[in-house]
Design a protein that fits this description.
The protein has about 180 residues and is α+β, with helices and mostly antiparallel strands. It has one domain: Cyclic Phosphodiesterase, Chain: A, CATH 3.90.1140. The protein contains 3 helices and 10 strands. It has a 4-stranded antiparallel β-sheet. The chain has a 4-stranded antiparallel β-sheet with strand order 2-7-6-5, covered by helices on one side. Strand 5 and strand 6 form a beta hairpin. The longest helix has 18 residues. Bound molecules: adenosine-5'-triphosphate and magnesium ion (MG). Adenosine-5'-triphosphate binds next to strand 1, strand 3, strand 9 and strand 10.
Length: about 180
């Protein structure tokens, strides 16, 4: 169960599935965030919050959590190698990010399997086209960049995260982890 810093239990939870970097990958991604910040300014994401969202559920009653995790338990998805080599900038929200220019097919398969599992568990869910990316900057200027050092990420698991929107921004709690085969 997720608690706020004031100790209050949250229901509904604000949930999303994500790839959560191992410490070494997190450090490398954070390094790229510093590099991108030099070029695009804005606000860097805290290293401990860096992630790649797979599916966003939004507000989900705690009562639906068991059905959701049971559906996800049945997923058989493969481990994958990501090469994050493509910086990007969205004008509409001024997010600066890093993503794979060539996402491996296993990533799309995992996202599809999660979308199906969410639907199967009876959670109201509006799947949007998935753009794999790690947000590194908010309020970023964008513009031209020199060549970017790619970040290699061996993905061996995925997680369910509860997001608490608090005064200092979003804080995330990993509440479940599933291994990839
Ligand atoms: P904040 O909203 O305070 O700026 P945040 O966006 O990191 O912080 P959340 O809004 O809880 O925190 O989102 C958690 C993750 O889900 C983020 O990676 C966010 O980009 C992604 N996300 C949020 N809303 C959607 C959505 N409607 N569709 C797809 N992904 C989403
Ligand atoms: Mg948000």
């Amino acid at each position: 169960m997720t608690e706020t810093t004031s100790g209050k239990l949250l229901d509904p939870l604000r949930l999303f599935f994500a790839l959560w970097p191992d410490d070494a990958t997190r450090t490398t991604l954070n390094h790229t965030g510093k590099w991108l910040h030099k070029h695009w300014d804005g606000r860097r994401m805290r290293a401990d919050t860096l992630h790649l969202t797979l599916a966003f559920l939004g507000r989900t009653p705690v009562a639906q959590l068991d059905a959701l995790t049971a559906s996800v338990d049945a997923i058989e998805a493969q481990a994958l190698e990501l090469t994050l080599d493509q910086p990007g900038h969205w004008q509409h929200n001024r997010v600066g990010w890093l993503g794979p220019s060539q996402p491996p097919p296993q990533l799309g398969e995992l996202v599809s399997a999660l979308n199906a599992a969410i639907q199967q568990s009876g959670i109201a869910f509006d799947a949007r086209p998935h753009v794999p990316h790690v947000t590194l900057l908010r309020n970023a200027a964008g513009g031209g960049l020199p060549a970017c050092q790619p970040v290699a990420w061996s993905v061996r698991d995925f997680v369910l995260v509860s997001s608490r929107i608090e005064e200092d921004g979003a804080n995330y709690d990993v509440i479940r982890r599933w291994s990839l085969t």
